Every structure is written in C-alpha cells, then in structure tokens.
Amino acid sequence: MMMLKQCLCSVLVCVLCFSSFACDVKGEERVIEGTVRIDVNRPIAETDENFVYATIDLWPAEKCDYGTCAWGNSSLLNLDLKNVVLFNAVKAFSPLRIRFGGTLQDRLIYQTDRTEACNPFVYNTSQLYNYTLGCLYLDRWDELNSFFTRSRAIFTFGLNVLNGKTIEEGSTGFGPANATLVAKGNWDYSNAESFLRYTVDKGYDVFAWALVCPRHGFSTSINNKNLSTNDKGPTDNGSWRSLRTGAVPLWNLKNLLKETGTSAVGWVTESGGAYNSGRDGVTNTFVFSFWYLDILGMAAAYDTKVFCRQTLVGGYYGLLDTTTFVPNPDYYGALLWHRLMGKHVLRTRFEGSSKIRAYAHCAKNSHGVVVLLINLDGNTTAKAKLSLSENDDGERLFDFRQEYHLTPLEGNIQSKTVLLNGQPLIVNSSGVIPIMEPVEVFGSRPITVNPHSIVFVHISNFAFKACSSLGVEVL
C-alpha cells in the first residue's frame, strides 16, 4: 500500500508501463554493470521502412471523458492546417505515416457535390457513438491533401463501413454477458465510391483506404464484392479476425500470420496505451516514453510492420500538444526511432538488470547498428558493455559511437520537457523543431544509462554481418 501511495498517478502509471519503475521510491542510488548481447549474424524480423505511424481522429471538442475535454480542435475536420509548428512537426519525419479516422469514421459521410449540405457532428446521446452523422467538405479534403502532400506525409483514410446498415441488439458469444450490437444489412458504398472517384480525379496520392471492422462491441461483415483494391495498399478478402489486447497480442499476431500462411502482414493500426483520451500528466509526459518506446521495440521484434500511435494530435496521448502543437516527449522518441532505427531487427537482450529494456536494429542511414536502451529504474545507473555474439566477452572496441540520451527536466518523469544530452528540446519562436545532435563517445567506454533515462546508441564504423549484406539503409 505504501508503494502505491508513492506512485505519482497511482495504479495508472504502473499498469500502463507494465513495470514498477514509476513507483520507485527515491533511495540510495547505485551503479550496476551489464552486457547488451546482440546477434549480428542475421535479422530476426523486418518492419516497414516507415514503422512509426500516428492517427488524426474525428472527435469533436465536445468529446469528454471523466469530466475533462481533451480534444479541442484536433479533428481532421477542424485541425489548424496553417499552424507552422504542426507543419514542421510532420515534415521533420519526411515522411510520417498518418491514418485519418477512428471510431467516428463510421459516422462520417462525404460531400460529393459542393452544393450539398454538409453538417458537423453534433453530440446526441440517442445516436450511435453519441453523435449524429458528420460530413467531410470537399474543400476540406482539398486542404488536407495540400497540407499533407507539402509536409511529405503518407496517409491512409478510414472509410465508413456502417453506411446502409441497421444497428440491432444481438449476441456474438463474447463480451460482457455476451451482449453486443450487431450491424446488419448490406454496405451502401455509393457515397464512398463517389468520394474515391473525386480523389482519383484530383490526382490525390492516398496510400490506402482502410476498411475496418467497427469497434465498441460491434459485429459486422462486408461482402467480398463490395471490397475494392488500392494498388498501393492492403486489401481484404472478406475474412475478418480480431486480436484482443492482452499479455501477448504481438506474439499471437505473429503466430497467426505464420500459421495461416497468408501473404498479409501485421500492422498495429491504433494504440494509445490508455483508454478514453489518455490521462493528463501521464500520457503526455516523459513517463509515457517508457511505454511507447518499449512497445515499439517489442512490436518490431515480433515482425510487426507498422505501429500506429493514437494520436498525432488530440486527447492527452498525442505526440503533439492539442492546443499549441508543441511536441510532447514521445514525439522526440518517435522522431529518433524514425531517423535511426532501420527496418531489420536484431535479437537483443540485456544481462544485469530486469529493469533495462534493450532493442537493436540495423542502422537506417549508415552502416552499423543502433541500440535502444530504456532504464525503468529510478535509482540505478547501468554501465553497459556491448557483446556481438553469445561468446563475445563484451570487450570489443570501436573508434567512436554516437549517443542520444533522453531524460526528463529536473529528473521529474511527469515533466513535459525532455532533455537531449542534457539540453532541453524546445521549439523556437519561428516554430522550428529543434535539431537533435548526438554526443560522440569513445568506443572503449561502457554505455552509461542513467536512472529513468532512454538512450539511442549508433555504432556506425563497423561492418556487421546481419546488416552489411543488406546494403546501406537510407532515408
């Protein structure tokens, strides 16, 4: 009980980060020695080259949870596309993969003629998801395409698959008391078809159109003949399967795809780490980077191709602040991952402490490897040697390596300010995203991983077998 009282956000922080690190009581600091063991002979998995992915949702400002309203003007229908910080934050990835949609995509219709009425979502508890139908203006669709083309984003659009269906009470044999809602009838795809034709006629480059099974206790189906294929994106042949969250969903997904022999690949299309808009002071602060970067590492190791963060902006779990668009700490972790971590994943483990998470990939922009180390312990500094095979003693020497150390301001894991190598990452008055430069360290020195810190380590001056045969991965 005393331990829980010490926790800044009680159970929430501890559960989200699936470790007791956030509840560490500050005590005597200690130093341990450990070894990062990396199998550099062959990759164990491969991600998409643009693994980092984020959503722009449809929730109106009136969307509130537990007495707080966290969405503001962050919907794709009203997001301020003239904001310089937002533009620069997206362009810094060049490209950032983005998904348009979410729960309310199944309540969204599309204007197909500029003379048609096009109304916003209106809160109404008698309606599905508590909102009336909303509408996407054609002019707004033009603005979105212009903005995200200029900022070099790759975007996927989630289509409304409930249009034309009726909603009834029913049972599918799962869920609380086996009760759920069932969507019956044929999908009326005429509105979506007109919208797609407009998009094609305008020459807009949409990576994929997503047909997603409805959420929140729904059961539905779509006839094969109603599904169309985008020449750049994934398709579905009418066989829908759902993986529920749990202890090993990534492992389950990998095995499911392997056992079925399908050509399909695994994407995590939405994961915010917290339900109902996140939690202010937790999911928008440094502490959440432990969960985020750890789940990115795990997902990649289980051969997941793309991992989508809920959200880019919106709620309390956005990579960007909902009001100012100033990056939250997770944004900088995502940006470093995108720039440094290549698509080929290496088997990695840390020996010396269960509170150090370790991941390694072939480097994205040069020869070599990049190691990610996450210290969940608030009282312990780790001194880590690198071992490149099972029999390596960890004394291998490299001339230099580049290190990126992320820590919270003043050691407060609930700070919204993150330090890179001791310097705060701050957007300047012109809205420019700060440059993220590493420090160079002699290769003979162990990697220092300070308490409650995250380190990316780039070893570029050595030809590793697992990576050299693949060629240099470039942005």
Describe the structure.
The chain is an alpha/beta fold. The protein contains nine helices and 26 strands. It has helices at 2-6, 11-16, 84-91, 138-150, 190-202, 249-260, 287-301, 329-340, 465-468, and strands at residues 30-38, 45-46, 52-56, 64-65, 68-69, 97-100, 108-110, 134-136, 154-158, 166-171, 179-184, 208-210, 218-219, 267-271, 306-309, 341-346, 348-351, 356-363, 369-375, 380-387, 400-408, 418-420, 423-424, 439-442, 447-449, 454-459. Helix 7 links the parallel strand 14 and strand 15 (306-309). The protein starts with a helix and ends in a 7-residue tail after the last helix.
Average of per-residue pLDDT values: 85
What's the total helix number?
Answer: 9
The total of beta strands comes to 26
Task: Calculate the terminal CA-CA distance, rounded to whole Å.
Answer: 49 Å
Report the portion of residues in β strands. 25-35%
The gross shape turns out to be globular
Main beta sheet strand tally, sense and closure? 9 strands, antiparallel
Helix content: 10-25%
Radius of gyration: 23 Å
Low confidence ranges = 1-23, 172-179, 219-247, 471-475
Structural class: alpha/beta
What is this entry, summarized?
This protein has 475 residues and is an alpha/beta fold. The protein is built from nine helices and 26 strands.
